[in-house]
Automatic annotation (TrEMBL):
Region (Disordered): 29-63
InterPro entries attached to this UniProt entry: SBP
Keywords in alphabetical order: Signal, Transport
Record-linked PANTHER family: MALTOSE-BINDING PERIPLASMIC PROTEIN, MALTOSE_MALTODEXTRIN-BINDING PERIPLASMIC PROTEIN
Keyword Signal appears in the UniProt entry: yes
Signal peptide: 1-22
Bias (Low complexity) ranges: 29-47
Source organism: Bifidobacterium miconis
Entry protein name: ABC transporter substrate-binding protein
Record family assignment: Belongs to the bacterial solute-binding protein 1 family.
Length: 447
C-alpha cells in the first residue's frame, strides 16, 4: 500500500477520548518488579515490536503512528513515566521471533492471528483481562473476536484491522447489481480469479459443497475432526467450475497476472485485499487533471458475489482473520503492557492508523469515519475499506489458525490447477471430487 503522511489527530483531544479505556487496565495481569515508584509516579520500561511502516516518520517530519500512540498513552497515564524501546518486527514474523525466546521478546507486539495457536502453545501471549476482552467484543464482528480466541476459549489479542480479500471492479463495465452475481459478470465481460491459490479456492465450496473445517466454520479448533465435504455437491460445483474455466470471459490469476491484466484492460474485475487498494485505484482512477477530477474514475469494490449451481444460488465466502496487538505474559510490567496492547487497538489509535497509513479499522463504529484531512480521506467513501468491512460482516468465515490447517493449502491449490489446466473435466469430475474428499477426510490430527 502506498504510504502518504499528513498531520494526525490532535493529541490533547485524542488523549481525552482514550482515557476511559486506558484507565481500565488489566484485571488478570500482574505488575512486575522492574518499575519503581517516586512521588506517585511509576517508572516503567516497555519494549514494543511493530512493523517498519508504523515507525516511519511522515514526509513532513511528523512523528510515526507508533510514536504518536505512545505519546497519547503517556498523556492518558500521567502516573506512568515510561521509557520506550521500539524495534521493527512485522506482524508476519511475530510468532517465530517471539517464540524463539519468549522471556526476551518484546512486552508488546503486533501479530497476524494465524500465529495464535503457536504463540499460546509457547506461553508467549497473554490472556486478555475482563476490560480488554470487553473492548474486543464491543468493537469487532464475531469473526474477528473468534480470530483472537484460543482453543481454550480465552481471548489473547486486540484486533486493529481485518485480513481478508474481496472484489475490485471497473464500474464503467459492471454495475453495483451486476457484481452481486458471478454468472452475470461472466456474461458481460472478462473477470480474473486466483483459482490456483488455496486461500481463494475454499470460497467456492464453503456453501455449495458443505465444506467444513475442523468441526465448525464459526470456530474451527478441533483438529481431530479434519476437513469434511459433501462429495455429490462437490462434484456438482466442480462441474460448474470446469464450465467456468472454459468460458472465454474467465482468466485465471496466477497471483501475478491479475493486476497486470486489469491494468491492460484485459479483465474488469480482480480479487484481492486492501494491500493492493492503492495500485488498483491508480489503474481504475488515473491521475487527476488540473480541475482535480479523475478522467476515468471507475474504481469500485464489493463483497464477494453469488453463483448458481444446478439452479441453486450460493454465496462465496472468503477466509478472514485479523492483525492484532498482544502483550507478553513474561513482561516485567505485564499490567502496563496489557493496557498498552489494548490502547494500540483502541478506536482512536485505529483512526490514526487510517489517517496516517490507510489501515482499515476493525472497529465497527468507524465504518462511517470521515477521516482527519489526510490523503486517505473518508472510510465511509473509500470503496476498498467499505468492501472489506462488508466482506467481514457478510461473506467471510474464520480462517483456522490451528497447525492442521497447513495441510489444506497445497491440495486446494492442486485441485484448482487441475480445473484450470483442463485435467479435470465434466466427465471425470465425480472421480476427482471423490479423490479430493478422501484426501480432505484424512486431514485429522491431535493437537
Amino acid at each position: 500500500m502506498k504510504i502518504n503522511w499528513k498531520k494526525a489527530i490532535g493529541l490533547t483531544a485524542a488523549a481525552a477520548m482514550l482515557l476511559p479505556l486506558a484507565a481500565c487496565g488489566s484485571d488478570t495481569a500482574s505488575n512486575g518488579g522492574s518499575s519503581s515508584t517516586t512521588t506517585g509516579t511509576t517508572e516503567v520500561t516497555l519494549s514494543v515490536w511493530s512493523p517498519q511502516e508504523d515507525q516511519a516518520k511522515g514526509k513532513d517530519g511528523s512523528d510515526s503512528w507508533l510514536a504518536q500512540v505512545e505519546k497519547k498513552f503517556e498523556e492518558a497515564h500521567p502516573d506512568y513515566k515510561i521509557t520506550w524501546k521500539n524495534d521493527v518486527v512485522s506482524e508476519a514474523d511475530a510468532s517465530k521471533t517471539v517464540i524463539a525466546d519468549p522471556a526476551a521478546a518484546a512486552d508488546v507486539y503486533m501479530f497476524a492471528n494465524d500465529q495464535l495457536g503457536a504463540l499460546v502453545k509457547a506461553g508467549a501471549i497473554g490472556e486478555l483481562g475482563e476490560n480488554e476482552a470487553k473492548q474486543v467484543k464491543d468493537q469487532n464482528s464475531q469473526v474477528l473476536v473468534d480470530s483472537v480466541t484460543g482453543t481454550d476459549g480465552k481471548l489473547y489479542g486486540v484486533p486493529y484491522t481485518a485480513n481478508t480479500w474481496f472484489m475490485y471492479y471497473d464500474s464503467s463495465v459492471f454495475s453495483a447489481d451486476d457484481v452481486k452475481s458471478w454468472d452475470t459478470m461472466l456474461s458481460k465481460a472478462a473477470v480474473s480469479f486466483p483459482m490456483t491459490n488455496g486461500w481463494n479456492m475454499a470460497s467456492w465450496f464453503t456453501k455449495s459443497a458443505d465444506l467444513t473445517f475442523f468441526g465448525d466454520n464459526s470456530n474451527p479448533t478441533d483438529a481431530s475432526k479434519g476437513i469434511s465435504v459433501d462429495v455429490d455437491k462437490l462434484t456438482a460445483t466442480t462441474k460448474y467450475l470446469v464450465k467456468m474455466a472454459n468460458n472465454p470471459n474467465f482468466i485465471n490469476d496466477d497471483d501475478t497476472s491479475g493486476m497486470d491484466n486489469l491494468k491492460a484492460g484485459k479483465v474488469h474485475a480482480y480479487f484481492s485485499g486492501t494491500w493492493n487498494a492503492s495500485a488498483v485505484k491508480d489503474i481504475l482512477a488515473p491521475d487527476k487533471d488540473e480541475d482535480g477530477k479523475a478522467d476515468f474514475d471507475h474504481y469500485a469494490a464489493a463483497q464477494l458475489p453469488k453463483f448458481t449451481v444446478d439452479g441453486q444460488e450460493y454465496q462465496m465466502y472468503s477466509f478472514a482473520g485479523s492483525k492484532a496487538a498482544a502483550y507478553n505474559p513474561n513482561a516485567k510490567n505485564s499490567k502496563v503492557a496489557a493496557q498498552f496492547a489494548a490502547f494500540l487497538g483502541s478506536s482512536d489509535a485505529q483512526k490514526l492508523h487510517w489517517d496516517l497509513r490507510g489501515v482499515v479499522p476493525s472497529d465497527n463504529s468507524l465504518a462511517d469515519y470521515e477521516g482527519n484531512g489526510s490523503d486517505f480521506g473518508s472510510i465511509a467513501k473509500d470503496p476498498a475499506a467499505q468492501a472489506q468491512i462488508a466482506t467481514i460482516a457478510n461473506t467471510s468465515i474464520l480462517q483456522p489458525s490451528i497447525a492442521a490447517m497447513g495441510e489444506w493449502w497445497d491440495p486446494a491449490k492442486a485441485y484448482g490447477a487441475s480445473i484450470v489446466n483442463k485435467e479435470t473435466t465434466e466427465d471425470n469430475a465425480a472421480q476427482k471430487a471423490a479423490d479430493f474428499a478422501k484426501l480432505l477426510a484424512a486431514m485429522t490430527k491431535t493437537e
